[in-house]
Amino acid sequence: MEKKWWKESVVYQIYPKSFNDSNGDGIGDIRGIIQKLDYLKELGVNVLWISPMLESPQDDNGYDISDYQKIYKDYGTMEDYEELLAEAHKRGIKILMDLVVNHTSDEHNWFIESRKSKDNPYRDYYIWKEPVNGKEPNNWGGVFGGSAWEYDAQTQMYYLHLFSKKQPDLNWENEKVRQEVYDMMTFWCEKGIDGFRMDVISMISKDQAFPDGEMNNSLYGDFGPYCVHGPRVHEFLQEMNREVLSRYDIMTVGETSGVTIEEAQKYAGEAGKELNMVFQFEHVDNGSGDYGKWTTEKYDFKEFKRIMIKWQEELQGKAWNSLFLGNHDQPRSVSRFGNDNPAYRETSAKMLATCLHMMQGTPYVYQGEELGMTNVYFDKLEDYRDIESINFFTELTESGLMTPEYMMKCLMLRSRDNARTPMQWDTSAQAGFTDGESWIKVNPNYKEINAAQQLKDPNSIFHYYQKLISLRKEKDIIVYGEFEPLYRDDEQIFAYTRKLDQEKLLTVCNFSERNAEMEIPEEFKGAECLITNLDRTVFEGKIVLKPYEAFVLYK
């Protein structure tokens, strides 16, 4: 297997609005990130993926860009960004930019021009359609609820927006649009950034027939079969690779919801014609109900394990995995896959980290995950800021599909705002995130869960992550070793081995709050324990795992 720096890296995702506020306006910013680079260096991560920091009206927290070459004023200036790059590089930390090119903001100059008239030179930069029988061109629903089409009175046509109506989709069929995107990417590569995380990149190619979608229990048709992994997506990405990506030593990861193993091998194949790796979402979509993620059902562990094993086994030697349990769009991983009850929070957070970081692929740590930060469980709608949560609350309760009480429970478990509460730095007011009033409420448990305390405690979750990350740097087997699952059908245990030449690793994790029995394979007799989250010293024969216990043996 070819060795690459991005395979050996550990990525830390920063959601800038909630990370660290340097000027007291209640919003995180670039100078705030610069202030915390030493903290990130101490943790050991060597790549930062920072959610979008470009000019934006903030309809979807920056995923609606109005100028691709300007920094959002509340985050700072281009000089601040250049300083961030320089200071990160000094510490051996690389920076990934969030590339949002499926859509722009409706306040982007291209769209302002595009909507002026049918013969405007920018008209074809977006997807405009005539009404059909006085209504939308088809029945597609948007990701954030409502129709995917918005009527524009000026030219009496509809434009497509797969997300918010303030996020019109770009028309990738137009060669000029593609060239604009490649020129903009080159601008950033020349500035010295180290790569791109590509937002919903699997949606850039649409079926040009724009047929109706299946209703599947919903108020609108499903655009998935016609917009996700569309007819020309691989052609477009290969062109992007030739024009930009292949000219720089950068890292690329695509957000590709709905991706199959076969598609992932095309996007992220070892031949390197498109991207380095993709995010698949099968494991985090596990446990969805009739209305997608809006459910109070818990995830199914056996299904989760089956999915994780499938991606490990089937991409092995063919394409590269990205490993994550949380991000800015997901609930907190310890609340979802572990147990955030104080009795088990630390143990289960360490267990989840062990399971993920010992697999083959590049691990991603979402800000606060290294502290075991939990869901916030807001119980009032007015505390939520996320457009998706607010829109779906309205849509599902007004249509009578859910009661407001049940929908509030769904939000408490699944809202994206769970991941977006401010980073918990210390016990001072606002968790040390800001001297002002935070843009979203701080999780009230910051006095128990914060970075300052964990940095002082050698047994903290922070130091456990630090150790996992340093092990990956020391041992090639953790990056490149072959993966093989054990106990495939066990209802509690996730265990697997890794092999590289004469070396072997065994990772064992108990995903439940009950004891679990297992037998240590004979070949690991006398093996060294690399890391354990409970102070186990005996690793031979039949053993009883405690709730959420995890360890890694090396021979």
From TrEMBL:
Q: Which UniProt keywords apply?
A: Glycosidase, Hydrolase
Q: Which Pfam families match?
A: Alpha-amylase (PF00128), SusG_C (PF23915)
State the CDD domains in the record. AmyAc_SI_OligoGlu_DGase
> In what residue span(s) does the Glycosyl hydrolase family 13 catalytic domain sit?
13-420
Recorded superkingdom: Bacteria
Query: What family does this belong to?
Result: Belongs to the glycosyl hydrolase 13 family.
Name the UniProt record assigns to this protein: Alpha-glucosidase
